[in-house]
Amino acid sequence: MASQEALEPKWIHDGARVTGICPDIMAAIERIEPRLHFTGFHRSSRSLSGIETGLETGSLDAACGLVSSPRRLAIGQPVGKPIYLVRHYLAVRINDPVTIESTDDLARLGDLVTTQRASVFTERLREAGVRVDDATDDNRVNLRKILAGHGRFAYVNDLTLRYLIRKESLEDRLRVLPVVLDDEPTYFWVGRRADPTLAPLLGAALDKLKASGELDRIYVRWGNMP
Question: Among the residues of 33-119, which ranges form H helices?
Answer without folding.
Answer: 48-57, 70-75, 103-109
